[in-house]
Amino acid sequence: MNSDSTNNAALAIDGCTAALRVNQFRWLVTGGAGFIGSHLAQRLLELNQVVTSVDNFANGRRANLEDIATAVGPHRAHAHHFVEGDIRDSELCMHLCQNVDFVLHQAALGSVSRSIEDPMGVHRVNVNGFLNMLMAARQAGVRRFIYAASSAIYGDYLDLPKVEHVIGNPLSPYAATKFINEIYAGVFARCYGVTSIGLRYFNVFGARQDPNGPYSAVIPRWIAALLRGERVVINGDGETTRDFCYVQNVVQANLLAAMTDAPQALNQVFNIAVGQRTSLNDLLRLLRRMLKELGHEPENPAVLHVEARAGDIRDSLADITKASVALGYRPSYTLGSGLQEAMSWFVRNLGPHSANPVAQRLT
To answer: For the chain, where do the domains classified as CATH 3.40.50.720 start and end?
Structure first.
């Protein structure tokens, strides 16, 4: 990114934040007790917004809601209304979208491997639930519908970096559901005038990310294993690469997408990442070094290589030019700086002596 585009991005971010501080809107965050959704709800509350969030706790955690309340304090927590519910319930979706300005749709079942095991279950949430939300947003006259898309949509297209207008064949049912979401968003724009923006997330990480289960993300899972002196499992040879994106970059992108007045940004999809790729082997070395500096990492952790997971792509790297130009998106965090900010949470909540229920389920 050149100096002019960097300055323009900084102005966009600052202007977005300033506008939200002086203008109060009503927001609906689906998946609001989840990893990304809880960070979005928290930031909106910090910016004096009124937030309704919904979650059925398939992935979300009540502890995340408690974290939000603690972070924003009682003077802002009252502006957060949480509803326990499921986006597969069309009537609930209709109710939730009433009198809402912006929808930040994060609710999904987001695992490639889970979708291969249970394609119908993932379809019901990711496609039927998405369509329910689009229908509700249309009926309620929501200003804008921002939704979590996915880098999985690039499928078997191998060229790097990934650019938005060139995709391959989906490699998993999960990727197919995310492709269908983008198709439906475009159809609703053309048929019904529903304004939407899709954000293709690339390997998001950060505090509140759950390391449990076979579908958990690699960073919290490996940190938990290292803290506990357990075996680190690597799928494949470790040379698989990913564009790891800290959750606060994703928060920035969602706010910019909601508040932009640029016509070229509307009814588009954007890569949301850092634009740097890291191999799993390099990631493990980085995590070991950072934890060792904090006095937590064992000297010689056991590492087990297993077969690469079905449906996983080999390499991932995003071109974020389109988001930079149209939205003013500029990632504030790299992999390293994001880990530095989040590491204290990981150590506190995933270590062997943590009282956090996340850590207790690891035992």
So the answer is: 3-203+244-274+316-332
